[in-house]
Design brief:
This protein is of the alpha+beta class. The chain is built from seven helices and eight strands, in the order H-E-E-E-E-H-E-H-E-H-E-E-H-H-H. A hairpin with a 3-residue loop joins strand 7 and strand 8. The protein is globular, with a radius of gyration of 17 Å. Bound molecules: zinc ion (ZN). The site of zinc ion (ZN) has 6 residues, from loops.
Length: 222
């Protein structure tokens, strides 16, 4: 089972790269295990990763298994697992459009109903802190606040989910809405859906009896 989950962490990181959500070795992926998480190692190209390269961390940050050093953003991942028991996996990317908006320190408003996949009607932008720092981990956990995604100022995107598939879907959908918002900003003033409409959308997603985002994700064959 653990070997399988390590393989899934790698497959998710490779999918992130294949779908253009991260370039080079930027970004990282983790999945919760009892008492800690599996996380991608630092500085290794995803296509070269083997299950044994995935690092097992305990919740206190100590390494429980694996000969590699963990991703430099391990504090970011552990901080979210510690504060959000329902979260089972995290995908962190420097995807182009989400990161561009983070550079403007701008949140993503409800310019498309699919933003509801991220568990709210906005994707907020966490205040800037140096990569890998405990401060960044705190800022991100605070910005997430019951949601599944937030931007990190001048840095990128954090997406969380019940499992790896869910976290990846959130990352991909938020990047799509970020791109749509960016494109709309080039030619005019985007119209933002109001809270009443976003409440209807949230209700409709729930009444499908599925995780929010599955209908759209199927269309995009994620
Ligand atoms: Zn990063």
């Amino acid at each position: 089972v653990k070997h399988e989950l390590r393989a899934q962490v790698i497959a998710t990181a490779q999918k992130m790269s294949a779908q253009g959500l991260s370039r080079g070795t930027s970004g990282n992926v983790s999945a919760r295990v009892p008492g800690g998480c599996f996380i991608t190692p630092t500085g290794m190209p995803y296509e070269e990763l083997r299950p044994s390269d995935v690092v097992e961390l305990r919740l206190d940050g100590s390494v429980a298994g694996g000969q590699r050093a963990p991703s430099s953003e391990w504090r970011l991942h552990l901080g979210i697992y510690a504060s959000r028991p329902e979260i089972g996996a995290i995908v962190h990317t420097h995807s182009m459009f989400a990161t561009t908006l983070s550079i403007l320190r701008r949140e993503i408003p409800a310019v498309h109903y699919m933003i509801a996949v991220a568990g709210g009607s906005v994707v907020p932008c966490a205040p800037y802190a140096t990569f890998g720092s405990a401060e960044l981990a705190e800022n991100a956990a605070r910005a997430l606040d019951g949601r599944k995604a937030c931007l990190l100022a001048n840095h990128g995107l954090v997406a969380a989910g019940v499992d790896l598939k869910d976290a990846f879907r959130v990352a991909a959908e938020v990047e799509t809405v970020a791109e749509q918002y960016w494109r709309a900003l080039q030619i005019g003033q985007p119209v933002v859906l109001d809270d009443a409409e976003m409440a209807r959308v949230a209700e409709k997603f729930e009444s499908y009896g599925q995780q929010p985002g599955q209908p759209g994700s199927r269309l995009r064959s994620v």
